[in-house]
Automatic annotation (TrEMBL):
Pfam families linked: MarR_2
Database matches in InterPro entries: HTH_MarR-typ, MarR/SlyA-like, WH-like_DNA-bd_sf, WH_DNA-bd_sf
Domain HTH marR-type per the UniProt entry, residue ranges: 1-145
Extent of the signal sequence: none
Protein name: Transcriptional regulator
Annotated SUPFAM superfamilies: Winged helix' DNA-binding domain
Entries under SMART domains matching the protein: HTH_MARR (SM00347)
Organism: Prauserella muralis
PROSITE patterns: HTH_MARR_2
Length: 147
């Protein structure tokens, strides 16, 4: 049950992290609900989106994007491969590495789910003006930049 009650001890250290985690959890839950009819979750969507944007990524690179160990990416890629949405192709420069590449069916699914993700974002950010939304996105990009 959602509450509009103020967060106790609003001036305590760690409040920003708490609020970011709370907002992130809400975003993930909303996106997972939207993706459910496709049999996908937010991490599947991220793998599809990132792989499509770069024309293929290694599981190590996907792990970095997701912020998880590459071994955790294996199950996500396995799910997407079983669904026919990605395939593992040989890396052109490293025969030990396979690239996760989005298939034609994956491109169709990605196009459909991008619209859902946009609507989820719009709902989550409805209380913000367009300028505030752009500022928030810029600040979050800075916070999540690994460099």
């Amino acid at each position: 049950m959602a509450t509009t009650e103020p967060i106790p001890d609003a001036d305590r250290p760690g409040r920003t992290g708490f609020l970011l985690a709370r907002a992130g959890g809400r975003a993930i839950r909303s996106l997972n609900r939207a993706l459910e009819p496709f049999g996908l979750r937010s991490r599947h969507y991220t793998v599809l989106s990132a792989s499509a944007a770069r024309g293929g990524l290694s599981q190590r690179e996907l792990g970095e994007i997701l912020g998880v160990d590459p071994s955790a990416v294996v199950a996500l890629v396995d799910d997407l491969e079983r669904a026919g949405l990605v395939r593992r192709d040989p890396h052109p420069d490293d025969r030990r590495t396979r690239l996760v590449v989005v298939t034609a069916a994956g491109q169709v699914t990605l196009a459909e789910t991008r619209e859902l993700a946009r609507r989820v974002d719009d709902g989550l950010l409805a209380a913000l003006t367009p300028t505030e939304r752009a500022t928030l996105e810029t600040l979050l990009e800075r916070l999540t930049d690994p460099s």
